[in-house]
């Protein structure tokens, strides 16, 4: 990846020697060796270079060593003649030397916003009307002098007290980490951390360089760099608020505020860098000519440069090397200056790496010809290196399958710099997870899939066909499936995720080859040292040998788990995580697995449609998309169990699920797992489940074992499967009608009652009557339609039995009919009466009574049935002394004594029995008039005695007396309420003899005297006591 564009010239032909650069806004400040300051105006994207705006000749008598800018006071800081001086902009007058920092060697500027209380913000003075902390801009200028440090501070442009402290050494370079921590470089090998608040220093501790531990080769690096010259200053740059990079020899260490390494890895340069700079997140370093190998295929070279000849493996010109601070690996190599002529490129020096404080700002450097004559005639040139857009950098990393690097780069960016940061992060994390999956890091990959809410169809597609089915995708198409580049499928990621996927034998073989190469005298020593792999390989090989020896001696055999088993274990974890969450999302929209038949099957959906399902959180999916997710998850879970853990199938099948039956049906049949297959059919393909149960029943001999499974299955089917129930239950009725009836008595579901009744009547009317009886008795059915139908069924069954001559069955059914029409009120008797034949007298009598035709009903009991007891019971049942049936006993007596049927026998005795038993319910006068003349008084003696015991006073007289009394009381009340008194202004209270006026009064009975309310008691005593009166 090349994160930076080829360098371009900002300023050329600069005759004086630049010693300091500063970029601030659109201004470029150049301090020279003669003490002059040149100010240029430049545009980062302009091709016209820079325009000279102003020149400050003789700003200092000696070279300007360092430039800085303090925004809080809008001043330029110049370090020259070991004294820092402040120059107000834009006038540069009056200059303010910082005399307390005399003997300065370096300085650093840091600005930050602090929430200070009122006393700190205003120097002890309280601000009226303002409470709470006040945001304050605090700028610090730290000047490193000989064996001391001086700190200048401004708060919102107001100077504060100057701090000064002694140091053990003189700092050559200083960089701020944050507002309190500063890193010092005393020398190229000595570094320290300084706390401003505590005014204390802490030495930086770094591990011994790796090349020191290599014995014979320990002095190799120093020997190779003897002729490269000494570096002018130590290498030190700030990386973040908590990290800084220090350079020791040809190694770079990233340290934290505690003075220790924050990353175990180091940055290795082929030789000590001359200078280092930082443009987040890249580290720039200037390397001397002839120290940097030529990149392979010139991939990192600028487009305008030409690779050197193959026989030369090192670049002969100075090089600017770009290293990623995230991976500590080189990402770009820029030979300098970038010209097509290799000879001219080698004759220049580059220095003064200067970065702008703004984010993603270009980096500047000065290139000067090495030849003094050429330098005098052509002068120096200032170059800028501009960074490519963040999106292009990330896209290139993704194109090269460097997903970890892309994610690390994304983490350093603010969303304002990359508006689609979240979308890119999700996409790259998915690709990274696929890369991890390919490399055998199944658990890490599955964790990412779960966190990203990825489409489960794509996750399942990473598995072979026996688990993923038609969703399976070849490994070469995995990246493109997840939206990655299609032309890089076979590229193995070259990052920290890369692991060996070869077998153990291949691994041992490669180690042996590596040891042989390292032991070979033909192998260059420097290459072995630079790689650092030979020694590691020897240690690794020795360790492996020791492990094998221990394993053999201890006779311990460790079972190796293959990649497929580990991948399936990870898949189980993914699917079991998705399954309850998808079920919960479906429950919110009121969709259950029992409704799976209402949705298209997974096999009916195209693969393209399944892969196009969105990668969003489950609550944001549509109901149809949720159903697809549920089908994919359950089907994959079922197939993974089937392949690796068949014993777990039963538990999964018994649960409500969305598994696609067609994917596993044949496999289950082949393994004769019929119970699991039936459970799986349930809710999806009931016809196949019932047919399978029918086939399995043929192997059973016991009737209960033969029919119970089918009956239990049919009892669970709802009304939407009514036709299936009817079709599959017929063979059960043929086997055993009594057991088959249990199908329609389920408490879990209820089928359409009318359709079930029709179906059962076609099979056998007696089963239909049993079903309606069950509805009425158990389910509380009260509709007239079912009651009428039950009565008609009873009637038809009675007539059918009579035709067959089956008297026992006729009597049984006819008794049910009589009991039914006599005890229930929910049928329509007139409708049934029209269907009755003439010879069913008792049924006709009951129906006539239901219709209110009591006399005709009694005629049937008396004349046709000659059952006088039932006639009397009938009268008892409907008798109501205050209703229309109060004379029902008299009607029966009249039928006895005045028969309407000429063929009726003499019924005097039943009539006398009726009179003796029910005399209170018979009218005495009418009863005596009905009796024949020959009936003696002795025959009706109990009746006459009861009649003579009637009360003397009629209740009507009593009512009239009460009415008269009520009227009398009402008249008296009206008279009393009509009495009133009149109070005038002149009326006097008879007790106190004062005028009543508007006072509260009391009226006394019976003559109506009026007194004051307070005089009422005294006057009342006078009325009672005649003496006082």
TrEMBL record:
**What UniProt keywords are attached to this protein's entry?**
Membrane
Keyword Nucleus assigned to the entry: answer is no
The CHCR repeats are found at: 744-901
- PROSITE patterns in UniProt: CHCR (PS50236), CNH (PS50219)
Which Gene Ontology cellular component terms are annotated? endomembrane system; fungal-type vacuole membrane
In Pfam terms, one family for this protein is zf-Vps39_C
Ranges for domain CNH come to 15-330
Provide the membrane topology annotation: Peripheral membrane protein
List the InterPro entries hit by this protein, alphabetically.
Clathrin_H-chain/VPS_repeat, CNH_dom, Vam6/VPS39/TRAP1, VPS39/TGF_beta_rcpt-assoc_1, VPS39/TGFA1_Znf
Q: Where in the cell is it found?
A: Endomembrane system
Q: Which GO terms describe its biological process?
A: autophagy; endosomal vesicle fusion; intracellular protein transport
User: Highest taxon of the source?
Assistant: Eukaryota
- What segment(s) does the record annotate as region Disordered? 484-523
Q: Does the keyword Membrane apply?
A: yes
Family in the record: Belongs to the VAM6/VPS39 family.
Q: What is this protein called?
A: CNH domain-containing protein
Q: Which organism is it from?
A: Suillus discolor
């Amino acid at each position: 990846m090349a994160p930076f564009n080829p360098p371009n010239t900002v300023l050329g032909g600069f005759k004086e020697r630049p010693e300091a650069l500063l970029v601030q806004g659109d201004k470029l400040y150049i301090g020279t060796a003669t003490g002059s300051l040149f100010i240029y105006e430049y545009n980062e994207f302009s091709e016209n270079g820079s325009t000279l705006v102003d020149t400050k000749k003789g700003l200092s008598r000696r070279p300007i060593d360092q430039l800085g800018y303090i925004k809080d006071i809008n001043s330029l800081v110049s370090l020259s003649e070991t004294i820092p001086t402040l120059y107000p902009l834009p006038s540069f007058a009056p200059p303010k030397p910082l005399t307390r920092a005399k003997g300065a060697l370096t300085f650093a500027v840091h600005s930050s916003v602090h929430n200070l209380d009122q006393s700190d913000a205003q120097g002890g003075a309280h601000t009226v009307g303002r409470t709470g902390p006040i945001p304050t801009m605090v700028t610090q200028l730290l000047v490193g002098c000989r064996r001391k440090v001086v700190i200048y501070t401004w708060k919102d442009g107001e100077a504060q007290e100057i701090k000064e402290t002694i140091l053990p050494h003189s700092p050559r370079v200083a960089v701020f980490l944050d507002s309190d921590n500063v890193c010092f470089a005393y020398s190229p090998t000595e570094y320290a951390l300084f706390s401003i608040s505590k005014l204390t220093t802490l030495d930086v501790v770094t591990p011994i360089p790796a090349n020191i531990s290599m014995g014979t080769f320990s002095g190799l690096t120093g020997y190779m760099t003897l002729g490269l010259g000494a570096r002018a200053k130590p290498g030190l740059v700030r990386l973040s608020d908590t990290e800084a990079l220090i350079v020791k020899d040809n190694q770079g260490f990233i340290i934290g505020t505690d003075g220790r390494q924050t990353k175990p890895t180091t940055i290795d340069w082929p030789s000590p860098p001359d200078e280092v700079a930082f443009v987040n997140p890249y580290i720039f370093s200037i390397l001397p000519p002839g120290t940097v190998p030529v990149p392979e295929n010139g991939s990192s070279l600028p487009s305008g440069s030409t690779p050197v000849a193959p026989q030369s493996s090192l670049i002969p010109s100075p090089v600017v090397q770009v290293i990623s601070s995230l991976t500590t690996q080189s990402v770009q190599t820029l030979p300098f200056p970038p010209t097509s002529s290799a000879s001219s490129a080698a004759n220049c020096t580059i220095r003064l790496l200067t970065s702008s404080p703004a984010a993603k700002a270009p980096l500047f450097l000065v290139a000067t010809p090495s030849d003094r004559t050429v330098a005098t005639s052509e002068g120096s040139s200032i170059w800028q290196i501009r960074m490519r857009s963040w999106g292009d950098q990330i896209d290139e990393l993704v194109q090269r399958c460097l997903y970890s690097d892309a994610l690390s780069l994304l983490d350093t960016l603010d969303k304002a710099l990359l508006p689609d940061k979240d979308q890119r992060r999700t996409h790259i994390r998915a690709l990274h997870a696929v890369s991890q999956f390919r490399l055998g890091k199944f658990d890490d990959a599955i964790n990412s899939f779960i966190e990203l809410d990825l489409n489960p169809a794509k996750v399942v597609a990473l598995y072979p066909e026996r688990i993923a089915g038609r969703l399976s995708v070849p490994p070469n198409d995995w990246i493109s499936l997840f939206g990655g580049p299609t032309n890089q499928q076979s590229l193995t990621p070259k990052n920290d995720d890369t692991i060996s996927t070869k077998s153990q034998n291949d691994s041992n073989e490669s180690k042996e080859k590596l040891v042989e190469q390292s032991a070979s005298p033909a192998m260059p020593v420097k290459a072995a040292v630079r790689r650092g792999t030979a020694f590691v390989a020897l240690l690794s090989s020795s360790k492996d040998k020791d492990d094998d020896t221990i394993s053999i001696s201890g006779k311990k055999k460790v079972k190796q788990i293959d990649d497929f088993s580990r991948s399936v274990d990870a898949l189980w974890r993914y699917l079991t995580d998705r399954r309850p969450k998808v079920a919960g999302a479906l429950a919110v929209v009121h969709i259950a697995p029992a409704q799976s038949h209402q949705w298209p099957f997974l096999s009916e959906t195209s693969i393209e449609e399944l892969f196009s399902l969105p990668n969003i959180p489950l609550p944001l999916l549509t109901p149809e998309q949720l159903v697809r997710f549920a089908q994919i998850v359950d089907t994959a879970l079922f197939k993974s169990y089937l392949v690796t853990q068949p014993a777990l199938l039963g538990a999964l099948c018994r649960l409500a699920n969305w598994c696609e039956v067609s994917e596993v049906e044949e496999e289950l049949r082949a393994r004769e797992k019929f119970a699991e297959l039936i459970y799986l059919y349930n809710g999806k393909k009931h016809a196949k489940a019932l047919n399978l149960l029918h086939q399995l029943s043929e192997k059973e001999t016991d009737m209960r074992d033969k029919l119970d499974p089918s009956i239990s299955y049919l009892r669970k089917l709802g009304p939407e499967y009514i036709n299936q129930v009817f079709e599959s239950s017929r063979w059960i009725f043929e086997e055993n009608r009594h057991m088959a009836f249990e199908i329609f008595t389920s408490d879990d579901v209820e089928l359409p009652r009318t359709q079930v009744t029709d179906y059962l009547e076609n099979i056998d009317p007696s089963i239909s009557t049993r079903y309606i009886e069950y509805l009425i008795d158990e389910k509380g059915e009260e509709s007239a339609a079912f009651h009428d139908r039950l009565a008609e069924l009873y009637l038809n069954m009675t007539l059918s039995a009579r035709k067959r001559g089956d008297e026992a069955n006729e009597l049984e059914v006819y008794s049910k009919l009589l009991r039914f029409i006599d005890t229930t009120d929910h049928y329509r008797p007139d409708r049934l009466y029209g269907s009755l034949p003439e010879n069913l007298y008792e049924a006709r009598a009951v129906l006539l009574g239901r219709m209110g035709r009591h006399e005709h009903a009694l005629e049937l009991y008396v004349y046709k049935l000659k059952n006088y007891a039932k006639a009397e019971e009938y009268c008892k049942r409907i008798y109501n002394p205050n209703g229309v049936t109060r004379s029902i006993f008299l009607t029966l007596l009249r039928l006895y004594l005045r028969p309407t049927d000429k063929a009726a026998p003499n019924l005097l005795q039943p009539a006398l029995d009726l009179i003796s038993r029910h005399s209170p319910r018979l009218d005495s006068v009418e009863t005596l008039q009905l009796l024949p003349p020959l009936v003696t008084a002795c025959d009706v003696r109990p009746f006459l005695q009861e009649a003579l015991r009637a009360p003397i006073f009629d209740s009507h007289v009593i009512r009239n007396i009460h009415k008269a009394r009520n009227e009398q009381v009402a008249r008296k009340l009206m008279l009393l309420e009509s009495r009133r008194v009149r109070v005038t202004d002149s009326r006097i209270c008879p007790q106190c003899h004062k005028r009543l006026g508007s006072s509260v009064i009391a009226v006394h009975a019976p003559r109506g005297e009026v007194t004051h309310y307070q005089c009422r008691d005294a006057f009342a005593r006078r009325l009672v006591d005649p003496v006082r009166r």
